[in-house]
Amino acid sequence: MNQLNIHPLCLKVPASKPDSLAALRESMAKGYDDHFPIILYEGMILDGRNRYAIATELGQHPTAEEWKPSYEGDTPEEFVLRAAGRGRRDLSPVQLAALAAELMPTVKIEAKRNLDVNSDTPSLVTSSKRKGQDNSKRSTAKAATAAGVGENSVRVAAKAKATAPEVFKEMQAGTISVAAAAKKMAPPPPPPSLDTVTDAEGHQITDAKAAAAYLERHRFEEIGREIDRVRRMVKELGELPIGVCLDTQRIMTDLHNAKGDILAARPHVQCPHRNCKETCRSCEGRRWITKQLWMATAEEFKK
Hints:
Helix 5 (93-118) crosses helix 7 (151-163). This protein has a three-stranded mixed beta sheet with strand order 2-1-3. The chain folds into three domains: 1-68, Conserved hypothetical protein from pyrococcus furiosus pfu- 392566-001, ParB domain; 89-187, no CATH class; 208-301, no CATH class. It contains twelve helices and five strands. By secondary structure, it is mostly helical.
C-alpha cells in the first residue's frame, strides 16, 4: 500500500488518548484484523488513521476500501460522525457534540440543496423561512443521531462554535460539560436598579443609601467576574510561544490577590441595627457594611 494522507474530515476527529493507542497497538501486534479495513475517500484516509499508523509501524499490510454510502443521502461527514460515535470510546458525549457541530455546515448545505430541489417556489416569504427552519431542525437531528448524542447537545455546541470560540475549544477538549457550556453562554442577568433592589427576605429596600450600597456590592461582584475572565486570557496566552516572555504565574497571583481584596471590600454584611432610628457607628445609616468594618466595630454595637 502506498503512503496515504489523512482526509481533512478525519482530522476533525480529536486525536486518541495515549492509553487507547497503547491498547490498540497491543491488539494489533497479534496480527491485523481484516474485518476493520482502512476507509478511503478521495484517495485519503477517512477512517482508520490510528490503525494505519500502527500497521505501518509494525510492518503490517492493512486492507483498504473506498467509502460507499450506506443509504440514499448518506454523506462522508455522517460516516465520520457514526465512526466516531461507535468506534471511539475515549470520546466523551460533549466532544461528539462538538464534532457534530463542526461538521454541521456541510449537513446544512446538503439539507438546503434537498429543500431547493424538492420544494416548489413558495408564495410567501414566511413559508420559505418556515421550511428552512424545519429543514435545519432535521439536519440537527440527523447529525445528533449519527454522533449518538442528543439534539440539544449539538445545538449548544453549534452556538458555542458561532458565538463563543473559547467555550467551543473546551467542548472539543472535553474539559467542560454541555450544561456548563450552556451556562457560560447564557446572557448575564440584568443589573439591579434602585426600583428592584430587595433584601435577603425579598422585601424592597426603599432606603436610598441602603439601595445604593446594594448596587455598589453588585458592581464589586462584576469586577470580580471580569478579573476571572482576564485570568483565563492570561493563562491561554501563557500557553502560546509568546508566553515565555511573560511571568504568567506572577500575573495570575497578582490578579487572584486583587480579586480577593476587591471582594473583601464589597458591602456584604447587613448591619443588625439597620432598623434603628438613630445613626450608629456601625453602618452610619447605610444598613450595609463591609466585613472589615463589621469586624472592627465595637462589640457593644454588635449585640
